[in-house]
Amino acid sequence: MIEAVGLTKRYGAKTAVYNLSFQVRPGVVTGFLGPNGSGKSTTMRMILGLDQPTAGQVTIGGHPFRQLPNAPRQVGALLDAKAVHGGRSARSHLLSLAQLAGIPARRVDEVLGVVGLQEVARRRSKGFSLGMGQRLGIAAALLGDPQVLLFDEPVNGLDPEGILWVRNLMKKLAAEGRTVFVSSHLMSEMALTADHLIVIGRGQLLADMPVKQFISANSADFARVRVPAGEAGPREKLSRVLVEAGGQVLSEPDGALRVTGLPLPRISDLAHEADVRLWELSPHQASLEEAYMRLTQGAVDYRSTDDKLAHLQAPPQPGQPGYGVPPQPPLPADVPQQGWYAPPPPGQNPYAAPQPPAAAPTAPAAPQSAPQPSLQKPSDTTEDAR
pLDDT digits over 261-306, tens only? Predict the structure, then answer.
């Protein structure tokens, strides 16, 4: 199991991850989602001991990664498929990793067969396509037959057959009781692969729940209703009846009605009582992508000026600001305020470290100079992977 408690990482004046707490349990595929720049890669690097947290801790099986004996046999990871010497063949690359970890050479041929690279095992990796590089990276992660596996964008560059293979592989590994942590931007794949989701935005926890619960909590189901084409009168009549019964009705571009707040049987009864024929009455459940966009729209750093997402905003609830999230406590003074989500309120983040009581209000302090950047430059993923 992977457990992070109060995980924080700062690079000079920039806070990449702030007070992040979660658990990744064995036996399920856990998806790790968030916009670009949200801190996913930094979090994975801290899990693997490639970056040291500024505060908090993260453990694997109760121990920091660097204290695990023969870590390659316990943890496998794919962070950068390009972290391979281009002059080496696939087999020699895996063989060198096996020798460093004391893994028998026969295991190299086994994993090459698992990922489907046995026929190109002696080709230099610099000639590999992006998808072949991904397969080689997955083979390296599986080399030690570890119980904990981390994958960052594992289907990047794969064809449909390869994507299906990775999906089935993740499920198989989780079914064997392993801990599988997968970061991806492909919502359609996460919907088919993941059982549980951890979502972060600007380095902070936004959601930690099963996929179905996540979709239900961040979207609104609706009924799609259609009357015979060209009959404006019945359509308006039905809209009025549904609104009077407590429903919310929106018109869609194709002439159908989107109805919320009423179950399908009630809509059918109301249409029958109003003597309105229905050509369509169908339920609609939001996709993972729609739910994800609702939750993270305020945490996107890079957005086109032509990007209009107002239609994805959930309607505010009575007594609650924004899209239904209660007011959050302010961030500590040393964390940049603009555009940041506040930490989850007490009770929503059970693994967070206890926070000290807030100090009494004082007079505004004199402006302070910007913090000095750290002398330690963040290490490059490829360099560390070697």
Answer: 888 999 999 999 999 999 999 988 778 888 888 888 777 766 666 6
| Residue whose tokens read 């159908």 | 256
Q: Can you give the pTM of this predicted structure?
A: 0.70
Task: Give one DSSP letter per residue of 89-127, joined into a string.
Answer: BHHHHHHHHHHHHT--THHHHHHHHHHT-GGGTTSBGGG
pLDDT value of residue 157? 82
What b-and-e string marks burial along 113-129, b requiring 16 or more CB atoms within 10 Å of the CB?
eebebeebbeebbeebe
Reduced to 3 states, what is the DSSP secondary structure of residue 44?
Answer: helix
User: Two tokens at 11?
Assistant: 């690079």
Task: Give the C-alpha distances (Å, rounded to integers) separating 137 from 24, 107, 110.
Answer: 22, 15, 14
Residues whose CB falls within 8 Å of the CB of residue 339, separated by 6 or more in sequence, listed in order: 202, 298, 301
CB 177 within 8 A of CB 26: yes
39: closest CA among 205, 181, 218?
Answer: 205
Task: Output the CA torsion 240→241→243→244 (10° steps).
Answer: 110
Query: Angle CA(15)–CA(18)–CA(20) in degrees, nearest 5?
Result: 150
